[in-house]
Amino acid sequence: METRLEQQVVVVCLKPGEEILASLLEAAAAHGITGGYLVGHGTVVEADLGWWDPEKDEFRVRTFEEPLQVGSLTGGFLVEDGESSVSVSATVAGPELIAFTGRLLRGVVGTSCEIHVQIVPSA
Q: Which domain holds residue 25?
């Protein structure tokens, strides 16, 4: 992974095989990010997307184990009780261009993934 700070924007460039959420938390620790939002795009070869089921109070998870284009990653960082966390929503599609969207619970980078994090200091 390569990261750099540009005017309160951290650019996270992920390589094949890296896990997106773990890498984002690593970047947050490296750059002292306690609050902010993110946008990104790239590819994955494995992904778990979740849909929050309010009746069951849990995610319904769909696992993808195929190359997919990530058309959009959006989300944010926060710190609660001293713990950093990141919440990311993703839209992915395969060769049929049928899109699936949901909370990204796990994502393994395919060829590349670039994420820009705008730091917003927490209160």
A: 2-119
